[in-house]
C-alpha cells in the first residue's frame, strides 16, 4: 500500500501536479493535438490517420511564450492548468497567462485574455509550433506542408487580429530574415551538397539597388524567404510562429533586423511611434491541420469567413480560389483604341495602364486625379482622348476594370503632405532640438544630440538626396553631423524640395525624416495615422475615377514606419473599409512584394517579368536570374497564385503554340501574369486571333474548374506540349497532348463550377 501511494505521488509530480495538469486532447474535423501539464503541445495528428505524430519528440511546442524586449529573454510556460475552456499558464518570471482554447469544426482558436505580472513583457509569441514536416515551408502565412501523395497533410496558423503578425518576438523591428535559406523540399530528388546544411542563411544577390539582381541562386535547395511566420531547423523540420506586441508606447528599434545587409542597405535606428490601444491582450490565432489538398478551400477559407477576416472577391469568387486566377492586360505604347476589344476577345477582365507612369498619392486632389471635372484626358484614343473615369466606364461595359501603378504610401514632392508645406504627421526617425536660433539664411544649425543623425536617409539604399530634417514647415537637407560639441548639421541646404526657409528658435524640434528611395519613388513616409488617410485616398480615387486595380510599386515602404506587417494590415484595412463606405466592389491589388499583412487583401503578385521570370522559348522559370523559380516556390508554398510577371508581348513573331504552352503552365502551377500589349505590335501579328482564342479557351476552362490535380501535374512538365479545344456545350474540353504538331493522346475535361 505504501509503495502504491509513493508511485501515485511520483506520477502526479511528473504531470506537473494534480488532475488539472494532465495531458489534454483537443480536436477538429481533421486535426488533433495533445497539450501536456506544462502548457506544451506534445502531439499533433491527422485524425484520418493517427499513426504519425507530427510533433517532434525532442521539440515540444509552447502554447504561448513571453518576451522581455529590454533584456532580450524569452519565458516559457512551466505549469498549466485547464478549466472551463481556458488554460492558466505560469511562467518563471512570475507572469500568469489566461488563454482561451476553443474547439471549432475546422480549427482551434486560441486567445490571450489576460496576463498577470506583465511588467517587462513587451511581446507574446504563439509558439514556436514545431512539426516534423520537412517539405514546403510557408513563411508568409505560417504553414508546414507535405504535398506528397503518401502524406498529403498541412499544419498552419492564421492571425485573427491585426496586431498579431507572423514572426518571432526577438525581431523587434517586426521584419525577420529575408534572404535565402538552405532547405530542400525533397532530400532524395534534390540532396544537399556536403558543404550546405538545412537552415543555413545566405544574403540576397546584387548590390542592394537592383531588385532583379537579388535573385541569384538557381538550385532548388536555395529558398528565398519573404516572411518569418515559419522557418526550418537544422534537420529541415518546419516550425510556425506568430507574435503580438504592446505597441502603446514607442520604442527605439534597429530596422530592419534580419534582412541581409548590403553595403547600400544597412539598418537604421528609428524611434517607433506610440500606437494607442494596440496591446497584446486579445491576441488571437487559429491553429489548424488538414489534408493538404483540402487546406485552402475547406479550412483556411472557413477560418477567414468564420472569424471575419478580409475576404475580397473578384467576379463573385474569393481571390484565393484558384478558379478566380487569370491574366490581366498590361498596356505599353500609349494607344488605347483597341485595348478594350483585345481584352474582351481574350475573355480577360483587367486593363493595367502602366504606360501612364506612376500615380502619386496626393490627398490634395481628393481622389480626382484628372481634376474635379475630369478635365485631363491622359488615355489616348484616335476618336478622342479620355479621362480615367470615361475610360473606366467604357471598360465596365464588358466587366473589365482599369488599373494603375502607384508608389504606395510615398508622399512625393509637390503633393499635399510633402511640399511645399510638409505635414506634421510624417514618420520621423528621431527628434532632436535646436540649441540656438537660426535665421532663414543660416546654414549653421546647432542641435542638442547627434546620436544616429550620421545615418543616411532610409535603410533602403541610403539615398543621400533624401537625407533631411524638418524644422517647423521647412525641409532641410544635410549630410553629416559633427561628433564633438557644439553639435551641428553639415552640408546644409535650406528650403529643400521647394519648402520655404524660415526663422526657427532654440528649443524647436528638429525631426529626422523617414523617407523612401530615390528615382521616381522619392518621398516622405507617413506615420500610421496619415497612412490610414492615404489608404482612404485610394478608395476615393476608385470611387471618383473608376480605378479598380492598383499595382503598389514600392510596397515595401509600408514597412518603413517600423511596424512590419501590422502597418501593412492597417493600410489595407483603411482602403477596404472606406471602399465599402463608397459602395464599391472589392478592389484588386498586386505589388512589389507579398507579406503576411497583404496576403488576405492582395489578389495577385505580378512582379518582375520577362526572361527573369519565365522564358517561354526555353520553357524555364527564369533563364537570366533565379527570380522566376524563387517567387514560384514562395507563392506555391503559401497558397498564393504564382506569376510570370509582365511578360509574353504579342508581336509579329508570336505563335499560337507559344501561348498554348504559356496557358498550360499557368493552369498547371496556378499562375497569373500581366500580358504585355502594345496595340501597334499586336496588329503586326498574323496569328493574333488564334492567340486570343487560346487564352480565352484555357481561361474559361480554368474558371470552370475543369482541370483535376493529376492533369495539373502533367501541365507542369515543360517537356510536354498541349492543345485545348472547347466542346460544343461550352462546359467540356478536350485536352490534347501534342508531339511534332500531331495529336498523340487526349483527356476529356468537364467543368465543375
Keywords:
753 residues; alpha+beta; 8-stranded antiparallel β-sheet; 7-stranded parallel β-sheet; 11 helices; 39 strands; globular
Instruction: Look at the helices and sheets and give the structural class.
Output: alpha+beta
The average pLDDT value, as a whole number, equals 95
Rg, nearest Å? 28 Å
Shape: globular
How do the strands line up in the largest sheet? 7-8-9-10-23-14-13-12
Task: Catalogue the unreliable spans.
Answer: 1-20
Can you characterise this structure?
The chain is of the alpha+beta class and 753 residues long. It contains 11 helices and 39 strands. The chain has an 8-stranded antiparallel beta sheet with strand order 7-8-9-10-23-14-13-12. Helix 8 runs parallel beside helix 10 (688-703). The protein starts with a helix and ends with a strand.
Spell out the blueprint of helices and strands.
Elements: H1 2-14, E1 24-27, E2 31-35, E3 40-46, E4 61-62, E5 65-68, E6 73-75, E7 77-83, E8 86-91, E9 96-103, E10 108-116, E11 123-130, E12 136-138, E13 143-146, E14 153-159, E15 164-166, E16 180-182, E17 201-202, E18 222-224, E19 230-232, E20 238-245, E21 252-255, E22 268-271, E23 284-291, H2 292-306, E24 313-314, E25 317-318, E26 328-331, H3 339-346, E27 350-352, H4 388-396, E28 401-406, E29 428-433, E30 468-471, E31 474-477, E32 509-513, H5 528-545, E33 547-552, H6 564-581, E34 588-591, H7 627-637, E35 642-647, H8 656-669, E36 671-677, H9 679-682, H10 688-703, H11 709-715, E37 721-726, E38 732-739, E39 742-750
Parallel strand pairs: 26-27, 26-36, 27-28, 28-33, 33-34, 35-36
Antiparallel strand pairs: 1-2, 2-3, 3-4, 5-6, 5-11, 7-8, 8-9, 9-10, 10-23, 11-20, 12-13, 13-14, 14-23, 15-20, 16-17, 16-18, 19-20, 21-22, 24-25, 29-32, 30-31, 30-32, 37-38, 38-39
